Amino acid sequence: MTVFFLSPAALAQSNCSLTVGWEAWFPYAYLDSKGKLIGFDVQLIEALGKESGCEIKFVGRAWSRLLKEVETGETQLAMGATKTAEREAYARFTQFYRMERLGVLVQKNKAQELKATSLK
Questions:
Q1: Domain with 22 in it: what CATH number?
Q2: Helices (H) and strands (E) in the chain, counts
């Protein structure tokens, strides 16, 4: 489950300018060969900004720094965040906008060699 989440500072702003943090995660947010930020999450935020009339400023960050900046209000919105109780203490989450089922990819000829006990 993936959502956006907002700092309380973002909710209190009336000038409708949002700093949106992102960490490279293909195909949701990444730089193309020309250095332009693209991806599903980026398109979604751009559409929301256009619809609401909000100015959007994207900032690339390491995830741990981005979380701290949302907590302090320096960055108002983080893309692709998983909802946790710890994060709910300082942020509000949107409704989920994508559901994912992730797994581990392994070569077919190596699958039998991989056992859960070998991952310790």
A1: 3.40.190.10
A2: 4, 7
